[in-house]
Fold this sequence. Notes:
Blueprint: H1 2-41, H2 45-80
Helix pairs in contact: 1-2
Amino acid sequence: MHSKRALSGFEESRSTVLLAAMDSDVRLLEGEVLNLEERARRGDAPAYKSYKIRKRALRILQRELKELRKKDRKARASSSC
């Protein structure tokens, strides 16, 4: 019985760490996108290309993070019952 609780606690902390890491990655990428967007506005063509690529990657990461948070909330709600 104790091993199941320990495993459950491990899974919860693992998902928390994963969410925090993804959140950090998203924030870093947001800053990078803003910087590239500013450079692209000034006419830097390579920056515009990088901006478009990173902007798309940012959207994908944000969507994945949102889905992971939703799954994490559901898992926590079902484990607390």
